[in-house]
Structure of ABC transporter permease:
Amino acid sequence: MVALIVRRILQLLLLLVGISFIVFMSMHIAPGDPASMIAGPTATKEEIANIEAKLGLDKPVLEQYASYMNGIIHGNFGYSFQTKQPVEEAIASRFPNTLTLAIASIIIAILIGVSAGIISAMKQNTWLDGAATVASLAGISVPNFWLGAILILVFAVNLQWFPVGGLTAPPWTLEGLQQIALPAITLGTGSAAMIARMSRSSMLEVIRADYVRTARAKGLKERTVILVHSLRNALIPVVTVIGMNFGLLLGGAIITEQVFAINGVGRLVVEAIAARDFPMVQGVVLLIAALFVIINLLVDIVYIFIDPRISYD
């Protein structure tokens, strides 16, 4: 396990270096000049040149990248071109909202997806199985922005059960639960559909195994056979899908945050791209990349708890 963690940390460092280089070069190649946007439409060429010199944009690109990486090594991710705020502070102020949304979404996805998958597998080729299949396909196909708008129209505007948007209250309070409910359902629907399909496929494979027939032959209750003997052995591919989806939820909540006016890192990166705020975009992308690697490491560790026979030596 220690060797696995060390390997993943080394992989994380190499990955972050590669991603930082790609994002850095992409932002500089893309059209648009941050100095011109900061100076405004009436600025003179001299004023723009002064801003470029102040931001270090007048230096060669590779020299700028080397300076940026030197700052990261010393714990400095730079300052926002627009707000002059340190990048790490801006991300830290918004990341809790994105994390709350992602956790709430994956909880909903797990509860709905695993339950639907088990029921669909146990009732194979029945109307329940067909309904779960149709619901899964619909969940994967429906765009987040459309589903979010419909939920707002029905439950926030017409029925007035939930607020239209925003995420200001702590999630463990009643107000916080009301604020997070619709965004979490919107973001978690697609993940729930994928988890349901994987749970069904994995359960169908397991319940036909010899040890499950033996458990039933011993006279064990069906609930025990399903939850103890079948579900645990079917969980490994499901955990993989859950881990991948959680990473995607953290990095892909941009649309949902826009629809529900949530101040998370998704909206932050959209604003930064529009303003050509290089340090902010690079900081958010590096954070998301690091989270993906960490989540994959946690998934590997969970494998061992599910099936102790798994070894990474």
